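lol so apparently i was supposed to do this last week
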Amino acid sequence: MGLGWYDSSTIPFNALLLLERCQIGWFCAREEIPIEVAVAFNANPHVLWYFQHKNPNVAPWVQKVKDARPKELSSFDIRKMEIKVFESVQDWVAYVWDPSLYDQQPFMSETLSRPLSTIDFRNKWVLDVGAGTGNLSYQAAAACKVVYACEPVGNLRDHIREESIRRNLRNLYVVDGMIEMLPFPDNTFDIVMGGYVFGDDMPAEMGELCRVTKEGGSIVLCPGNADLDNERHSFLTEQGFSWERYEETKGRWVRKYWSTVVKRSG
Ligand SMILES: C[S@@+](CC[C@H](N)C(=O)[O-])C[C@H]1O[C@@H](n2cnc3c(N)ncnc32)[C@H](O)[C@@H]1O
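anyway here it is w/ S-adenosylmethionine bound
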């Protein structure tokens, strides 16, 4: 079951040739080779070739897919499998195919300003981790001293650069980087924020977020956490984060979290 962001049947399988090195790494990190992956990739060996050459670390995964040797199917059934593969990576394909597909999602347009509406950005150094199409960064840039939009996907970084020029935001800088290894020195930012990015490796990610935040600075996370006391919620509240719920789209409540960083010496 996909995210339902757009009709995957309109995208050619060759769109996977736009995936970037980090995304190929994420794609091939999945242990299991589902049948649709085995069928679709063996029917498109040039895409397998591209994955292996763009990111040589995935060679064992590529071999596993080749070894799966699915039985031959009609071109109609192969296309069904290709679409199923797309359904599982609609977000990653949107980022490299057409980032506006992300901005068109209702959760972006209806409640975009709410997560950050209470933050005082004036005169602050701000970091937006996993900046995506840059929407949180643009909000911050309108008020803060400087904002760094940190995003591992190059096509999205290009998108943010173009959009920040169009919006005449001269205090917005775009950099490559991952939440688990942020490319900034310790104690750099007054506010560190992340929309829909926190949660895959919570201890490592939190360590980095705290490291780059100044003593007394703030971390604000809108992880898209459903309105549930789940593992992410337990982790963040145990770390002393405050939280509140907000309506992300009509009828879908999610939680945002914030905390002031206190550094212990020794
Ligand atoms: C769902 S989008 C959110 C974009 C934006 N923060 C927002 O709230 O609209 C998630 C973004 O995080 C990026 N991302 C994924 N894994 C990441 C990681 N390990 N470190 C940093 N960014 C990551 C993706 O490339 C994507 O742009």
